[in-house]
Amino acid sequence: MSASSSPVPDLPAHSRRYEVLIEAFVRLSFNEEIELTGWIGETTLNAECRIGRRYLDIKGNVAGEEASLKIRRRRMRSMPVTGQVMGQPIEGIITAEDGGIVLEGVAGNEPIKYRLDAKGRATNFGRPLGVTMLYQSFFSEIRGRVDRIPDAAMVALLMPLEIKLRDQQTR
Question: How confident is the model at residue 107 (pLDDT cuts 50, 70, 90)?
Fold first, then answer.
């Protein structure tokens, strides 16, 4: 049977989806930390979140490029964010809303509006990204398929804040 008569047609390059499996472990130490490890397609993602009184500092890499966010924690409902993901500077405001968090800002020149909700869904401007999160006390994970590697990286970098906020709500 020749390749041209294959029963399964080749998918166009633009419809490729990247499988995602990212695990988050909460480490109990003097400074509470969250460690993120996993894959987006064939690309590895590693990051570590240090949680201080005034900030969450998430630093790591995806595909060998820097992936970091610094989230200034305030008592108010909004928190400023700065960082970089795959060569693009990130800045914006995170708002803690009932049932989740929303990051609205800019990545490079692209406007972003990510939402992570308590049921584990993740969207950008209301459009599902294709990944869901399973939250547990000491171990959480992100699974699914995404169209763009930076979307999965952003969800992973936002996950420690969502874990921390959920932990505070259950105490």
Answer: very high
